[in-house]
Every structure is written in structure tokens, then in C-alpha cells.
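Before the break, one more example. Copy the sequence into your notebook; we will annotate it together after we see the structure.
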Amino acid sequence: MNNNYNIFWGIIFIYFLGLFLCLMIPSEANAVTEVNTTTNSESDVKSKGRTVVISPPPSAISPSIGGSSSDICTSGVSGAIQTQILGVSTGETVRDENCERLKISKTLYDMGMKVAAVSVLCQDRRVYDAMGMAGTPCPFLGEIGTAAAKKWIANPELIPKPIILETKQDVRERQGWIASGTVTLAMLLFLL
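Here is what the structure looks like once it is written out:
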């Protein structure tokens, strides 16, 4: 085994030694020969060229809309659309009236004005209905309890209007219309 090992490395050594000598010994084929020649030539060259610049399309970037504080009752909505020629970007804030109502009610409650805090919440029809179902009607112009319930019955036009809540089907239909409108607008802008 050791003898075969030595023979193997001996053959490798001789191979690399031969390769080294072949590369290091200058040969007749690699000799530099100097040749002087003179050439005169004339030519007329006509050429046409076309340059195509491929660049990414310009970008309409949606503005960042939002508050830096979580104590505001607004949400940011923004959007952008871009074609090769025209780009449009817009944004706005949307008030959250329920958030405002909760913050006002909490502030009034913290100041010790519990009836006023409940009155603010009762401006929402869901709270109005819940208070009636619980047997504690919403306050009415300073009246509470049974007296307030009688005043509410006498003045039904002051009862908050019912809120029609969206169902999943309503949301799906609205999203379908938005998607089809977006695709149509994109196709129209694509034609520009």
C-alpha cells in the first residue's frame, strides 16, 4: 500500500515538473519576429443606428397619511396610479365619529359628569337601544330613569336614527364594484 502511494505521488510530481518545464522553456513558435509592413487604404462608411433606452416607468408614490399620535380619531387613506405618461397620487384623512364619541364620553366621566358621559354615548342608536333593553333609558334633558323614558316616548323625533350595518355580502359587492372600476380605469390609462 505504501509503495503504491509513493509511486502515485512520484507520477504526479513528474507530470507537474514536465508541465512546468514546457511552459518555462521558450520555444521557436513563441519567438518574436519583427515584420514591417505599410498599408494604405481608403473607405467610405455609411451607417445607421438606433438607440433604444429601456428604463423603468415613472412612479406615482402614495402619500403617507396618518397621525403621529394615537390620540386622534382619524385614519389615513391614500392611493396612486401611474401610466407611462401620467401619474396621479392622492390622500386624505377620514374622521372616526365613534372614536370621538368614546373619547368625549371618557373625558366627561373622568371629570365626574357621569350622566353627561352616558348622554354622549346615547347619541349612537346602538347604545340607545342597549340602554332601553337594560331598563336604564338614556337621559333626556336632565331627566333620568322613568321620567327620561316618558320624555323619549313623547319626542320620538329626537331618538337617534338606526344605523344600518353592512353585511359580508354588502362588503363583497362593494369590493367587486371597486375592483371592476379599478380594472376599467387601468385599461383606459393603459391606452394613453
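The mean pLDDT is 78. Strands lie at 74-82, 87-95. Try to locate both features in your own notes.
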